[in-house]
Design brief:
This protein is α/β, with parallel strands linked by helices and 316 residues long. It contains ten helices and 13 strands. Strands 5-4-1-8-9-10-11-12-13 form a nine-stranded mixed beta sheet, sandwiched between helices. A four-stranded mixed beta sheet has the order 3-2-6-7. Helix 3 links the parallel strand 8 and strand 9. It is globular.
Length: 316
């Protein structure tokens, strides 16, 4: 089985919804993706940064309950990061943070097939330089995926954050971003232009999620961009939806032997839509299931299979 290592944040989300008191739950983009991958049947590890405090104990318990392996040294922080999430009437979340970020070294890096990273892990020091080094090492021998998952409150100005983000984009095989991410990074530029520019810098597959307008996709071996509709479900909460899509996408690409090794890297570079679309649809399905629940719910492979059985056109 492909060894997948996620590098990035695991934290406490303090969630405030309309007319309710704040509630603390375990979250973090990279932990959500790692947990999503285990729920889909993959061995998934997480190199992260939390403390040996009460909140850190919750993070550890959540990761272990999800079957996620924590990289030794991940509990070396002075305090566990808290993301204060405010969810509006439309289910959209905005964030403020009390955080600390560093990252331990991944053990036995030569045995890693795929690395996923994103969010503030690639921008904030002292961890950012270590993440970049790990991605550079992985890009030589295996595959890398990246989700910028922009948090404006943490990243300074777009001009300050852009070089860090573009450095990872150029090293990654798969990049997923939202239209909000791209608008913050490149104000006023059409998302199609940014997708094409990023594609030319190195990635074999780029996705841009656009809410009700679907997912815009660019593959290296295909000339034209593709648009795939979102799953038609009733929105309850967007928390974790992008992470769920990422987990489903990685899962599908690994199962298709398009991620996880140097050979898979080349196959993805040459892959047609017919080869890629089943993984895209798995990601859209997992995301569509997640938004039916409050919080970062991770669907199982059986739930995905149930959606596919009801609508075989989603198979690709």
């Amino acid at each position: 089985m492909t060894r997948i290592v996620n590098i990035g944040e695991a934290l406490i989300d303090e969630i405030t919804r309309p007319n309710t008191a704040p509630v603390e739950v375990v979250g973090g983009s990279m932990l959500n993706v790692a947990a999503g991958l285990t729920r889909l049947g993959h061995d998934s590890e997480l190199a992260t940064w939390f403390a040996r405090d009460a909140r850190g104990d919750k993070v550890r318990a959540h990761a272990e309950a999800a079957g996620v392996t924590l990289t030794p040294g991940s509990d070396g922080a002075e305090f566990t990061t808290v993301a204060h999430a405010t969810v509006d009437d439309r289910g959209h979340a905005t964030y403020e943070f009390d955080l600390s970020w560093d990252v331990p070294a991944v053990e036995d890096p030569d045995t890693v097939g795929h690395v996923h990273t994103g969010s503030y892990a690639v921008v904030l020091e002292p961890g950012a330089d270590k993440v970049l080094a790990a991605v550079k090492r992985q890009a030589i021998r295996g595959t890398v995926s990246y989700d910028p998952n922009i948090r404006p409150a943490l990243l300074g100005t777009p001009d300050e954050a852009r070089p860090h983000i573009e450095a990872i984009v150029a090293l990654a095989d798969v990049v997923k971003a939202s239209d909000e991410d791209l608008e913050w990074l490149y104000p006023g530029r059409p998302v199609e232009d940014v997708i094409r520019e990023w594609s030319q810098s190195g990635p074999s597959l780029i996705l841009c999620t656009r809410g009700p307008w679907g997912v815009y996709i660019k593959a290296a071996a295909e000339r034209d961009m593709l648009v795939v509709d979102p799953l038609d479900v009733e929105l309850v909460d967007t928390v974790g939806a992008g992470d769920s899509l990422m987990a489903g996408l990685i899962s599908g690409l690994v199962d298709a032997s398009l991620l996880g090794s140097g050979e898979a890297k080349q196959r993805l570079r040459e892959a047609s839509w017919d080869q890629i679309l089943p993984a895209i649809h798995r990601g859209i399905i997992t995301s569509g299931i997640t938004i039916l629940y409050q919080g970062a719910y991770s669907p199982t492979r059986e739930e995905v299979a149930g959606i596919l059985a009801a609508d075989p056109t989603l198979r690709g």
